[in-house]
Amino acid sequence: MAINRLSCVINGIKDVKLDGHAITIVGYNDEKYGGVFELMNSWDIDWANNGFIYIKYNDLLKICDEAYELIESSNTSS
User: Are strands 52-56 and 36-40 parallel, antiparallel or unpaired?
Assistant: First the structure.
């Protein structure tokens, strides 16, 4: 996986297999680089752009094995 540190954009390469690592998608921008997700990593602010990086929509599809969505429950009973 190549990281362009100047623009903080990940270019996905499917041939690179990394061990599992969790990141959080915290935003998106349809205009930047043709469409990107903004990711927050757990490796502290020394990584990439203060711990944040962009990944192009298509590149995320190439390298992501699993994804989960958190949805607030509408159940108000205790």
Answer: antiparallel
